[in-house]
Amino acid sequence: MKSAAQKLSTVEPEVLTINVNSTYYKELNQNLRRHVLAGVTAIELKNVFGQRYIGTNLQRPVKINIYGTPGNDLGAFMDGPMIEIFGNAQDGVANTMNSGEITVHGSAGDVLGMSMRGGEVYVRGNVGYRCGIHMKEYGDKKPLVIIGGTSQDFFGEYMAGGTVVILGLNLKDGEPHRANFVGTGMHGGRIFMRGHISPQQLGKEVGVTEPDAADREIIEYAVRKYVAKFGGDTKEILSGQFSKLYPKSLRPYGRLYAY
């Protein structure tokens, strides 16, 4: 027989709905912060039209559903919340995010995951330029980004840690990933790419190998989470050809600054 505490834990939290429309982004974020600090744990933002900084620096366990297109730096410096976007997102998603989870049911713009320090980001479609730039990790903080489609140039630039899995599910058979200069300046972390990418598309600091058993566990975890969010066939996705991209050196430009 369930205790009173167990019964309460199964009750869905009351959802606060905010109709955003033309609300100025500062006003929206002040209102959002006020509700979160007051203890609201579930919020829906309807009719979002490019308002910036949604979820920035929030440090409470709140679930935020966004309907529309949020503006730049969604979830920047975020520490704990879960944000789900039912549409596309603009640039700077998860900028320097510390923990939490962001799910994008469409595509996202440039510099997604820039300097991301922890948490997980899931994108159903494509991402733009310089995604994963200078991602990092420390101790048990190991950020993870999973992209269902493909990316533009300078993907994983200056990566210092973390994991990115890019699935290429919207590419045709034999069609290569689009990005050039992948991993330029990379000195930490790992990138797993499903599908074809040519050596000339990679930064000179990047090595390529087949994933080992430990890598396959990471890939399987990422794919199962992706399928749980967006649908698909886990077995079919995992049957594709994966490559592991890794940094050849921890100090690729060390000689430039040595005397």
What's a concise summary of this model?
This protein is of the alpha/beta class and 259 residues long.
The helix/strand class is alpha/beta
Strand order of the largest sheet: 1-2-3-4-5-6-7-8-9-11-10
> Percent of residues in helical segments?
10-25%
Poorly predicted segments: none
Tell me, rounded to a whole number, the average pLDDT: 92
Number of helices: 4
The tally of strands reads: 11
Strand content: 25-35%
List the helices and strands in order. Answer: HEHEEEEEEEEEHHE
Distance separating the two termini: 72 Å
Radius of gyration: 19 Å
Set out the fold topology.
Layout: H1 4-9, E1 16-19, H2 25-37, E2 42-49, E3 63-69, E4 79-86, E5 99-104, E6 120-123, E7 144-147, E8 160-166, E9 188-194, E10 206-209, H3 213-230, H4 234-238, E11 242-247
Parallel strand pairs: 1-2, 2-3, 3-4, 4-5, 5-6, 6-7, 7-8, 8-9
Antiparallel strand pairs: 9-11, 10-11
